[in-house]
Write a structure and sequence with these properties.
By secondary structure, the protein is of the alpha/beta class. It is built from ten helices and five strands. It is 53% helix and 12% strand.
Length: 209
């Protein structure tokens, strides 16, 4: 299997993190080198973003969009554990969020076309082999957040989740000719959804294990 770059996408509470872990475990058990990562990262810029999300800092939405862009460049180009380096080392890289998340979340506050253009160089540096979008409704999102989170982050309101969900669908339509985007039903059980995603990844580029 050639190294793949797989991005998981979805509104909050969609189950991305669980599915990243499941897919990594399945591919690793098949004998493949797998590197999992996420955005915002644990790098200094990513930590600053998390401080904004947890209400420890205040920043304008345009500033937040700029911070995400800077964090994404570091995510791609870091000489120790950047996405491009890991792919070159033969790892399949699975990320929990990439630039489609910016299109959706920042597109609520500024023209989504501007966000896409701002991230154009990131896309040119490395496009995912597939963007896996786990589809749930905003209402289910908020139910899951209420059940599983001790603290609610900046964007985690029903009103905002509805806006983000709509922007995801708008962005997917805008970039459908440039990106491979596969939608999965996020209301399935963790195990059934994980099996569906695993089977899809197995057949990418007609790969057989």
């Amino acid at each position: 299997m050639k190294p793949l770059f797989i991005a998981f996408e979805g509104i909050d509470g969609s189950g991305k993190s669980s599915q990243v872990k499941l897919l990594a475990e399945k591919l690793t058990s098949d004998g493949h080198k797998v590197y999992t990562t996420f955005e915002p990262t644990d790098n200094p810029i990513g930590k600053m973003i998390r401080s904004v999300f947890s209400h420890k800092m205040v920043a304008d939405e345009k500033t937040i969009a700029g911070l995400f862009l800077a964090d994404r460049f570091e995510h791609l180009l870091n000489q120790t554990d950047g996405i491009i380096k890991k792919l070159a080392e033969g790892y399949t890289v699975i990320t929990d969020r990439y630039y489609l998340s910016s299109y959706a979340y920042h597109g609520v506050h500024m023209p989504v076309e501007w966000v896409i253009e701002a991230n154009r160089l990131c896309a040119e540096l490395k496009r995912p082999d597939v963007n896996i979008f786990i589809d749930i409704t905003p209402e289910i999102s908020m139910e899951r957040i209420a059940q599983n989170r001790a603290n609610v982050e900046l964007y985690e309101t029903l009103e905002n989740q509805k806006k983000v969900y709509a922007k995801y669908k708008e962005a997917i339509e805008l970039v459908k000719n440039q990106e491979i985007i596969k939608l999965f039903d996020g209301t399935k059980s963790i195990e059934d959804l994980g099996s569906d995603i695993y089977q899809y990844v197995k057949q990418l580029n007609s790969i057989s294990y």
